[in-house]
Design goal:
Elements: E1 35-38, E2 43-44, E3 49-51, E4 53-56, E5 74-78, E6 84-86, E7 92-95, E8 99-107, E9 119-125, E10 133-140, E11 145-151, E12 157-163, E13 168-174, E14 179-186, E15 194-201, E16 211-217, E17 225-230
Parallel strand pairs: 2-9, 10-16
Antiparallel strand pairs: 1-4, 3-7, 5-8, 6-7, 8-9, 10-13, 11-12, 11-14, 14-15, 16-17
């Protein structure tokens, strides 16, 4: 059940895909959610449909309820209609492309601009079963040279590149079960490369996106970091 005191920020990928606070439409003016979206977290294939409805929590504060809690008094919103469209009255979702969207229920007469979010969940659309490529958008954002390596699940090296400061590249590689990226940076005064470790994109993270941003990010203190984030919509190099 969706907690009453917060908006869900669902992370569908096990490696690095994160919600930002400005991605979310704020909760209603009572600072609680008064309804659960059922089913919670629906997962669709492209072309699939599913209908959601609002189940209001027992004994919520009357001041926070809309005047009409029936289906006729509610409206539905998708944060990304390119990925998941929604019938605003019936609450029927349709998967359009691989990705995800926040699904929000509001009163008929008070949408997001009025601050009246009643309930929310995150729906996702899976990649087509035949999709078999991994797109890596690689960027070295530091002022030093850096090496990035992509391996498959067996440890076999698929790609490697050494990028100058602010260098970028893009890889299109066959998709594997789980895939680790590793990186090292060449710091001034050091005789060799300094490892930044490795991060994995696990197999279930490929369900919603095959495009991954791979950044070596500078830090104000300490070593740079290797950061991964899923990208939507999927794209090629």
């Amino acid at each position: 059940m969706t907690p009453r005191w917060s908006v869900v920020c669902a992370v569908l990928m096990a490696a690095a895909a994160a919600c930002r606070s400005n991605d979310l439409i704020r909760v209603d003016e009572c600072f609680i959610l008064v309804a659960e979206v059922v089913p919670e977290g629906p997962v669709l294939q492209i072309g699939d449909t599913v209908t959601v409805h609002a189940a209001f929590f027992p004994n919520p504060s009357g001041a926070c309820l809309p005047p009409d809690t029936t289906a006729a008094g509610l409206r539905w919103i998708s944060s990304d209609t390119d990925a998941i469209s929604i019938d605003p009255v019936a609450g029927r979702l349709t998967g359009r492309r691989a990705g995800w969207a926040q699904i929000i229920v509001v009163p008929r007469d008070g949408g997001p601009g009025g601050g009246r979010v009643l309930g929310t969940t995150v729906a996702s659309v899976l990649e087509p079963p035949g999709a078999d490529s991994l797109i890596s958008l690689v960027a070295n954002l530091t002022s030093d040279s850096a090496t990035v390596v992509l391996n498959d699940a067996t440890g076999t090296t698929l790609r490697t590149v050494t990028l100058r400061a602010q260098g970028v590249t893009c890889w299109n590689t066959p998709l594997s079960d789980s895939m680790p990226y590793s990186a090292a940076v060449y710091l001034p005064g050091q005789s060799g490369a300094t490892s930044l470790g490795a991060k994995w994109v696990v197999h279930r993270a490929f369900a919603s996106t095959h495009t991954w941003q791979v950044h070596i990010d500078p830090q104000s203190s300490g070593l740079p970091t290797l950061d991964l984030a899923g990208v939507q919509p999927d794209r090629g190099c």
